[in-house]
Amino acid sequence: MKLPNVRETIFSLKSYLSAIMALYLAYSIGLPRPFWAMTTAYVVAQPWSGAVRSKALYRLVGTFAGSAATVYMVPRLSNSPVVMTAAMVMWVGACLYMSVLDRTPRSYLFMLAGYTAAMIGFPSVTDPSLVFDTALARVEEISLGIVCATLVHSIVLPRGLAPALTLQLDKAVRDARNWMHDTLSGKTAEQRDRDRRVLANDITQLRLLSTHVPFDTSNLRWTSGAVRAMQDQISALTPAVSAVEDRLRALQANDQPLPDTVSALLNDISEWINAGAQASHDTAVQLRAAVSHATPAIDSHSTWRDALLASLMTRLRELIDTYDECLALRREIHAGLKGAPRRGSMRGGMHHARPARDPNAALHRDHGMALLSALAAGVAISVCCAFWIGTAWSNGATAALMAAIFSCFFASQDNPVPGIMQFLTYTVYSIPLSALYLLGIMPAIHSFEMLALSMLPTAFVLGIFIARPASTGKAMAMLFGFLGTMALQDTNTADIVSFIDTQVAQCMGVATAAIIAAIFRTVSADWSARRIQAANWKELATLASSPRAPSRHTYTARMLDRIGLLQPRLALAERPDDLVAADALKDLRVGRDITELQRARRHLPMAEATIQPVLNSLAQFFRARSAWRVGEKTPEFLAQIDRALSSVAATPQGVAARDRAVVALVGIRRAFFPDAPDYQPAHPTMEGHAS
After folding, report:
1. Quick check: 196 and 239 in contact, CB under 8 A?
2. Is residue 155 within 8 Å of residue 26, measured between CB atoms?
3. What is the pLDDT of residues 429-438, one digit of tens each?
4. DSSP run (H or E) holding 21
5. Fewer CB atoms near the end CB (10 Å): N or C, the chain?
6. CB 561 within 8 A of CB 362
7. pTM for the full model?
């Protein structure tokens, strides 16, 4: 076994200090179940103080809401066990449904509101007159654990999120830089795909870490706006680099060389990117000017190669702007950590305030999976309650509440069964340890000091393993089983019969949750990836058929969030060709092109009549895909794109919307018809015929 390092030791000692403090206060106040307070302190513990603080308030509110629901339901329904079970199932299911949908720290509020009601409600059925006292005691015990853990982790050697987050930010920028360099220098498709997967994983990890930034104990919390903006900019690099990659592939098809000016420009951009943190803003301004100078003018005589070059230059300009903004934001975050005031974004040498936005508004939400999770939890609770009612089992309430808790804990996973079974396995492993303490050590202890001292070795060792990500789940299961059994001491039922009965009830509840999840809730990584992909297609159909120009940033953020969700599933999927990821990236580019086309067509009345059929065909194609039918890429669709391109190119010069529409149509044509013959202008030049 690897010896604990300093961070693991400090975390374990702080967790034990907060837990033993909660236990002491619970005993001092005279609460009926003090070990609930100790267990809660461990459940709340996190390596970073910001993570503890970010969830503390939501846990408190969720506990109160669940207790209030129990106080309302139990006295009215305790005489009708079937109706009581149905009401509890509906409450837990509704709370779990909202928790799965809300993929933020706020989801803890809904989850705790659900299973807290089960924790209090089921044991109170036998004596409903005491439900208010029981609910009040549970709120006090759980609140004690939350408050003690929050105070200790925030005050005693707090571990700020800044080192981990800045390391992840730098890693994301470095991996983005590698992908851009490999794309611009023409590395193999396999290498570029590897770069893309690494960056997508970085974006996902960054999103998970950044949710805790506003609650951090260091100066990092004052930079939360810059961190969120930098996360968005890193995400925005994905479609830009992918589009550049595609245009370069098209321009170099059939061994055609790039124009010398373009090759030189790509080398200059690559050198600037490779400079890393030393890449200057002045160089970015010069590169933007060079890109603008190299962009060919588009008119009715322009060839397909001209349109591809114009599209490439536009995406290169976006890439430069986005990467330059990433570097400026990284410098701002670095200064903010040292106490400097927050500044606006740097663009074009001037500061601009970044508009505030809701960071959760663009997250993907799967109502179907949330409903399935709620259904599985409801069935698991119902099965345990039916057995409890049918057999009049004295410990049936324990099985029902354990089924509720573990149906909620792993609800966000595609396949909750391995997680639940791991918890069950290590709960069983904790039984000998629990028996030693409950039946051997505890009867010989007659003071709190001796109790605290006797529990220190076990709690310290388990705390070390909780601090290690690879063993967190296993150690938490051991601790959960250990402290749950110790709670028998609270009720003065620390005997062999009660011990065995409680262990059987706990294992039965967890096993029932696993069995029902395996039947109703488990889905494969392939199926889940395809479901996320179908959500993309549905949204693309909505974008194309929308009468108004949609928000590009909201759509891009949501699509990137879905790509982040796809990455871990693709690692487990049975598709070695990674086509799902490639399709998702192509959908991201198409969605961006659709939003640009929707915005541009309002300013191009002369081309409106040819752009609308393209949007209609796009909407029809993606509606078919979202319904799991094969969308048709008909020759008529290609002809519609070419007519629109010709019509847009013929509009008067100087209209910015015209250039945006050309770039968008080139992107759509490349996405749907990459192998089609080159677009032919309506009035081709001699050079166009020659090419």
Report:
1. no
2. no
3. 998 998 888 8
4. helix 6-29
5. N
6. yes
7. 0.78
